[in-house]
Amino acid sequence: MGQNLWINGESVECDNYRPLFNPFNGEKIADVAEASKEDVIKAIDSAAGAAVTMAEMDAHKRSDILRRVAELIQEDRDECARLIAEESSKPLKAARGEVDRTIMTYRFASEEARRLHGETIPMDAAPGGEGRVAYTVREPLGVIAAITPFNFPMNLVAHKVGPAIAAGNTVVLKPASQTPLSAYKIASYFHEAGLPAGALNVVTGSGKSVGDVLIADDRVKMVTFTGSPEVGKHIRENAGLKRVTLELGSNSALIVDEGTDLKKVMPRIVTGAFSNQGQVCISIQRIFVHEAIAAEFVSLFIEEAGKLKVGDPLDEQTDLAAMISGYDVTRAKAWIQAAVENGAELVYGGDSERQILKPTVLLNAKLTDKISCEEVFAPVVHINTFNHFADAIAKANDSKYGLQAGVYTNDLQKAMQAAKKLHVGGVMINEIPTFRVDHMPYGGVKMSGTGREGIKYALEEMTELKLVSIKLD
Ligand code: NAP
Predict the structure, then answer these.
(1) Quick one: 429 and 301 in the same domain?
(2) For 60-85, how does the pLDDT look when each residue is reduced to its tens digit (9 = 90+)?
(3) Whose CA is nearest to atom 28 of ligand 1?
(4) Distances in whole angstroms, Cα of residue 116 to Cα of each of 58, 113, 119, 338, 459
């Protein structure tokens, strides 16, 4: 299969194609277009050309297109899940979950398209403001460059394309090189749903070469990026006055207080640690357990992790499959090794088979070990203990990241203390940090990024607020 670029409502051939391999079995899936600089400029031309059409399109029409896209994905649910499983090695049942969330995301986008409005401003509240009627409107920015990662290849595209189209913008989408096919599939649904040519363009190729063209072009008004902090920083430093939102990584913490019903919550905690091989930006990486329940916690955690079925992502029973690259397996194993040499105890897993790293549990890693202070992005957690709840909060905050944190406690005072003191974008009480539904505001502090997604919040980032003031005689 040859996968061309998608520019101006058409499949466009280019000079170079790169083979795409299934991370689990190494089989070739497709030859994927590698856009040249000229191809990327063509995509921006096309998005810029469609900007007026989109800005003038009525809200109900934008809403209908997005609703129709959700319906088309629903009709192709199994095919979409298989595509995600093949290109990213996400186990099929998790891939189906992602497709279902993608449908919800486009439905929310469809609804928000109808709700986009400003407000009236009481100008006479200030001396000198009398005798005026004033209101705000939210206008589209124009061309938005969307750059997305491999780990939720359909839903994270939806979190950018959905609100961008809902607000009347046009998009040049650059999906991750390992997961381009689901992005092209989405473009075909938009085409079928009646989106005007040029309003959504998809270009694949090396992140840096495509990214740098998008970031440098003055016609691109916003870069919305989800991915690693290193790339996010590069974009921020080079984007000039463009609007930039960055949804970056984390080393999410979970605090488990004494009194927690461990048997009840353990399946959820293990899911939060190992889902999609730990390659989730809010995957549980650091667990802080009250020392009174630590022994029971560790034993139940290992027992639950032992139930996970490891294997082929296309097998309906599989919970954990291959990581995205051999490089990442080697990197994670080196970090595990370094933590062990520094005194941590490896109590489960640690070994790998081809590109599958087994679920891995360490005890008492130092917070300065890479396995703790960097984003591991692999099925690896470490469990440490605490005595005083305030110490657990301090340890959770001892991180350069701050995306979401989870706390299990039955003590209302402690829950409120955690809500106030945790320095993150979202605090999940009696829930894992990995919890997300697609309309909630979502984003990080510190090196986890700037700006918020969650359709309504992304729409605010993707529109310009304009004030209209009318002076009356
Ligand atoms: P990545 O390596 O940063 O890649 C993300 C995207 O950026 C890809 O499309 C990549 O293209 C592109 N890219 C690479 N270099 C670039 C450059 N110089 N300029 C512009 N674009 C460039 O991240 P990943 O490995 O795909 O994803 C994992 C990371 O994403 C983790 O850190 C994870 O925590 C984060 N993430 C965050 C969230 C969130 O919502 N906060 C959600 C999911 C994932 P290529 O694939 O061609 O290199």
Answers:
(1) yes
(2) 999 999 999 999 999 999 999 999 99
(3) 227
(4) 11, 6, 10, 51, 8
For ligand 1, atom 8: residue with the closest CA: 176
Per-residue pLDDT tens over the stretch 109-122: 999 999 999 999 99
Given a cut of 50, the residues of the chain with pLDDT beneath it are none
Q: 98 catalytic, yes or no?
A: no
Closest atom, ligand 1, to C-alpha of 211: 20
Is 247 a known active-site residue? yes
The answer to whether 226 and 147 are in contact (CB under 8 A) is yes
Is 443 inside a domain boundary?
no
* One domain for residues 241 and 260: no
Q: What angle do CA 62, 173, 242 make, to 5 degrees?
A: 90
Asked whether residue 188 falls in the same domain as residue 262, the answer is: no
Q: Which of 247, 304, 375, 453 is catalytic?
A: 247
Number of H helices, E strands in the chain: 15, 25
> Which of 14, 281, 373, 461 is flagged as catalytic?
281
pLDDT at 409: 98
Same domain, 350 and 316: yes
Tally of structural domains, the chain: 2
- How many whole angstroms from 202 Cα to the centroid of ligand 1? 16
| Structural domain that includes position 306 | 253-438
Give me ligand 1 centre to Cα 405, in Å. 21
